[in-house]
Amino acid sequence: MKLTDNLLKRFGTDKILHHVTGSSVCALISLVAIIQDGIIGWDILTYPVIGAVAVFLVSTVKEYLDARFDWKDILAAMLGCIWVFMAVAAGVFLYQLSV
User: Fold this and answer.
1) pTM value?
2) Mean pLDDT of the 31-40 span
3) Rounded distance, CA 52 to CA 54, Å?
4) What is the rounded distance in angstroms from the CA atom of residue 72 to the CA atom of residue 92?
């Protein structure tokens, strides 16, 4: 619980929520694209780019609709996409080990 409190104090609830929402949206869109094409291999690392572009577009539009535009909110959302890239890379790596 102390780690959570420290993260919230350092970055703020708003930035943490942008980060989590960005990673969730990126993961959902990437997963749909991966399942749709059914590809397993290193080429699959391009699919989270689709999710990251969607996160950037949605975050930018959301910031324009807010009372105050904040690039740090967009950055926090985009940094959430890194987790998706790492998860996809780990999945491909583990699949390659089992083949």
Assistant:
1) 0.85
2) 88
3) 5
4) 31
